[in-house]
Amino acid sequence: MLITKLTYQCSAAFPSDERFGLTSQIRRAAVSIPSNIAEGSGRGSTKDFSQFLSIATGSAYELETQLILAAEFGYLDETRLQSVLDELAELQRMLYGFQKSLQPEN
């Protein structure tokens, strides 16, 4: 949820003409991450949970791309970008590790 909070803070200063463009896309991707983790944890099977973790991971990579684009467009400074990307990288590692831990051993 920290990623979502940071994303909303970063995108608050984006130009108003991006409200229905990049701002909306970034915020949806950010909200999708914890939402899919929560939904997956409420499912009845490990397989379902793993699938929702996969969706959350995809949203994390989508968000990473969109934040880099925002910086390229000059909407986000490099310091702020790097701070959020560092948090995202840690989350991506945790999601990957968690998903791996749910897989049965051979």
Automatic annotation (TrEMBL):
It holds the Pfam family 23S_rRNA_IVP. InterPro entries: 23S_rRNA-intervening_sequence, 23S_rRNA_IVS_sf. It comes from the Bacteria. This is Four helix bundle protein.
